Amino acid sequence: MRVKSASFVVSNAKVNDCPKSSLPEFAFIGRSNVGKSSLINMLTDRKQLAKTSGKPGKTQLINHFLINKNWHLVDLPGYGYARVSKKTKKEFQGFITSYFLKRKQLINAFVLIDIRHDPQAIDMEFMEWMGTQQIPFSIIFTKADKMSENKIYPTVSAYLNAMLEGIWAETPTHFITSASSSKGKEEVLEYVESML
Ligand code: GTP
Ligand code: MG
Q1: What does pTM read for this prediction?
Q2: What is the CATH number of domain 6-195?
Q3: Atom of ligand 1 lying closest to residue 34 CA
Q4: Could you say which of 73, 116, 158, 194 is the most buried, measured as most Cβ atoms within 10 Å of its Cβ?
């Protein structure tokens, strides 16, 4: 897929206020600072479409972007950001979970995992929750430029094996990406296109 047009639509704190349009939707979720907003900019070839930051907790709302006038891309706040107060954290979790439970337009969620990190409980728990709610998701490993080529395959295999040792009978579709080098861009966009 070629991204011919990409524009910001709206930010919302409540899923009920999100666009009423029935366009198919793809959401990007993962821990704070994992690279959700950077990946969105890489995929759309727009450097500043989604706001990024070196400090975790940058994206705090549900952000809708219209791509090629026929699908919505959604940038979400990170889960598990420890440095905000407990109450704020709970609110994030609340509106993230209600987004996934209520958003009928959602075709697939991309769960982002920093390729350098061993499996973390919070990501595993989030994916298990998605599984029990039957919300389709795939995994995007991010920041592959931070790992030497020869370590990428064994690292990803170890991650997926850890999932198989958990509750999963099969591993989800997964992608290896870098917002800096644009690795994985075509694969992710083709995957989206195949589901439109
Ligand atoms: P929140 O909105 O806070 O949840 O974070 P986010 O997941 O949207 O992360 P963001 O895209 O803002 O990126 C966080 C930091 O990681 C920034 O400093 C980015 O420059 C950096 N980063 C993101 N993707 C990559 C990547 O592929 N490679 C490298 N080297 N750095 C990256
Ligand atoms: Mg962000």
Answers
A1: 0.94
A2: 3.40.50.300
A3: 7
A4: 73
